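About this split. The held-out portion is used to measure sequence recovery: a designer receives only the structure tokens and must propose an amino acid at every position. Recovery is the fraction of positions where the proposal matches the reference. Here is one held-out target exactly as it appears in the evaluation file.
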């Protein structure tokens, strides 16, 4: 079992259920459909509403909006800095993509206390407080924000020009957390080219979990990272396609004491502007 105060199980829900400042986000968003189960008081949100996605040639795509913009977006759902927020997805293999990590990443940027439910919906189903989605109209479909600009100075993120300037430094380790087949050249999510950033190592985000969708324990995850030739004194850059899978790896490695940043523009930007390999 992964041990950290921000990674919780069903007991956390039971302890906080009647707290008026407790909010639960079902971060599956557009992936949810009629017939799925959700926490009975969950707010269904989609990461796309909170991320810049309209950059030309994928410039800045995947970056968060400015803090005040995000706060305004979250406040529409009653999520404000005085809240304690729990996020869950379906973490079983083949379902979730790390959206829980992305929401935690964004909520922390806004100064909002955020937790991740280990095991996701599987853990929800262990308590009595869940319901079935009867109609798609109950769900909140994400709208893409075409008006607000990306925030370019978030300390937990790194931009393409900066990564280009440091990527050959031996103390900088780059982890590609997409599926192994993407690293090897398969195009799944619409990138112009397949492959990976030169010198990057493949560490699929799925390696964080066991076969039931629960996080591995701390020592097993740490061992996997160290076996890649990465130390805690290195600067680790994690990337995927739009920063979603990278965010969950960022959160977990940060909890383990690694020095990590997210390359939010991701391979979609890198492959049309910088050198890569297959």
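Reference sequence for scoring:
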């Amino acid at each position: 079992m992964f041990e950290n105060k921000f990674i919780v199980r069903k007991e956390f829900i039971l302890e906080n259920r009647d707290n008026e400042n407790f909010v639960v986000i079902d971060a599956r968003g557009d992936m949810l459909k009629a017939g799925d189960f959700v926490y009975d008081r969950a707010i269904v949100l989609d990461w796309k509403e909170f991320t810049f996605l309209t950059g030309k040639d994928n410039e800045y795509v995947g970056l968060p909006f400015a803090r005040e913009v995000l706060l305004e977006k979250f406040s529409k759902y009653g999520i404000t800095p005085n809240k304690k927020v729990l996020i869950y997805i379906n973490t079983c293999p083949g379902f979730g993509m790390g959206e829980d990590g992305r929401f935690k990443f964004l909520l922390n940027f806004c100064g909002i206390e955020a937790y991740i439910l280990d095991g996701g919906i599987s853990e929800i189903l262990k308590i009595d407080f869940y319901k079935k989605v009867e109609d798609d109209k109950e769900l909140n479909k994400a709208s893409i924000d075409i008006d607000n600009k990306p925030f370019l100075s978030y300390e937990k993120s790194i931009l393409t020009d900066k990564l280009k300037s440091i990527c050959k430094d031996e103390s900088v380790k780059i982890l590609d957390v997409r599926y192994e087949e993407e690293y090897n050249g398969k195009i799944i999510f619409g990138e112009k080219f397949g492959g990976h950033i030169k010198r990057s190592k493949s560490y699929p985000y799925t390696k964080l979990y066991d076969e039931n969708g629960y996080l591995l324990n701390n020592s097993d995850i740490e061992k996997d990272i160290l076996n890649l030739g990465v130390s805690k004194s290195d600067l680790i850059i994690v990337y995927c396609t739009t920063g979603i899978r990278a965010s969950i790896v960022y959160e977990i490695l940060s909890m383990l004491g690694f020095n990590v940043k997210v390359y939010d523009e991701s391979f979609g930007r890198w492959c049309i502007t910088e050198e890569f390999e297959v």
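Annotator remark: The CA atoms of residues 84 and 113 lie 5 Å apart.
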